[in-house]
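Hi U.,

Before I forget, here's the chain from the pilot set. I'm dumping it here mostly so it's searchable later in email.
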Amino acid sequence: MVTQNRNPARLKGIWRGKDQGRVRRLGEYLFVAPAVVFIVLLMIYPLIYNLYLSVRDVNVGTFLSGNAPFVGLQNYEQVLGDPTFRHSLLISFVFTGASLLFQFIIGFALALFFHRPFPGNGVMRSLLLLGWLLPLVVSASVWKWLLDGDYGVVNYLLQSLGLVHGRQYWLTNPDTALGGVIGANIWLGIPFNAVLLLAGLQGISESLYEAAKVDGAGGWQRFRYITLPQMRPVSLTVLLLGFVYTFKVFDVIFIMTGGGPATATTTLPILTYNQTFQFFTFGTGAATATLLLIISLTLSVAYLLLIRREEAT
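Structure:
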């Protein structure tokens, strides 16, 4: 009878104290486990394997046999010494810089426009997001059709206005192909910039503007001395996210031009794809992908240091 009385108490004790804490922690780990598995399988493992390939001479033969010789930094030296890499790096910076400039300016203007209440504000903001919500494959295909030299709408409109004469093959002309993909990417990124910048504008206290009005500040003065300084952290964040996203854009360019004509629109992501899946030089392709990651990571670290310095002051 004594044993029977002790057993229920012991069973209850298991769910108390340390045992109960262990069970709770185990449950927390189980909830986190899917995210950890996702990150390890789809982010950490590919990154490590890419670094592994970048220091080995991997081609079709060595990849299938699994006997790729170790070459150290030879792949990186080959990539950095290749004029094609330097050309692709320049194209990437031109593509990214032009896209960010116009996306930010137009997005900021739209954010200022939607920050003021007017009838139909919510409906127009919803329509603005439609272009951003479309799959990139659809958007890039639509822009490829718009810029087509034979039956594109852009040619028809420009010819109707008398701005161009004859057919203009925007995406097959080396002088205009880069501008065509930049224009498409600007259109794709404007809603993203506008939404984030609008959120930043809504976070500025109205009391600052009211005090400035009392002091006799005009609209331009309020924008220059209140809006711009208050929007600085948000603007830096938008520009950083835009750079990281735009610098690695692949699908839009690949669908519209495939990196051509010649190498007019061959950015670093396109070059990485060509090296890996067209020429099957997996080692140099992995090295190019690593350099692409290093450039983005360097800017991100510089941004974090800048933000920390501003917070310290």
